[in-house]
């Protein structure tokens, strides 16, 4: 799933203890959105959702460029130990401008182009 330049994004993630079992984090989980490897100032909101060790992270992309690489990294304390992990990464899709859309419609002759037409005959009897 790629994202759009100014899209609101929400993802879910889980935290586990050293035994691999779902476990709630102690304290506040922090999250940072990176764009092309550099931390952004975008606020990533982390919230607990139903169930042990289940969380959501949400933010709105800040008008990024096509092909920008985005990543979310969280830091959480579980069982007295602080862990930092990349929980999500994706790329930004390009959004065509109205002029680009019009040029593509002109080039292709319309929004739908029939590549192949086929007629199927049915086998019926007339008495």
| Euclidean distance between termini CA atoms | 56 Å
Mean pLDDT: 82
* Reported CATH architecture: Sandwich
Category by helix and strand content: mainly beta
Element order: H for helix, E for strand: EEEEEEEH
Helical element count? 1
Strand order of the largest sheet: 3-2-6-7
Q: Tell me the number of structural domains.
A: 1
Shape, per Cα inertia axes? elongated
Provide the gyration radius in Å. Answer: 24 Å
Instruction: Provide the CATH top-level class.
Output: Mainly Beta
Helix content: under 10%
The CATH topology turns out to be Immunoglobulin-like
Spans of at least 5 consecutive residues with low confidence: 112-127
The fraction of residues assigned to DSSP E strands is: 35-45%
Number of strands: 7
Major β-sheet annotation: 4 strands, antiparallel
Overview of this structure, please?
This protein has 127 residues and is mainly beta. Helix content is 9%, strand content 40%. The strands form two sheets. It has a four-stranded antiparallel sheet with strand order 3-2-6-7, with no helix packed on it. Strands 1-5-4 form a three-stranded antiparallel sheet, with no helix packed on it. A hairpin with a 2-residue loop joins strand 2 and strand 3. The longest helix is centred in the last third of the chain and has 11 residues. It is elongated. 9% of the residues are buried. The C terminus is likely disordered.
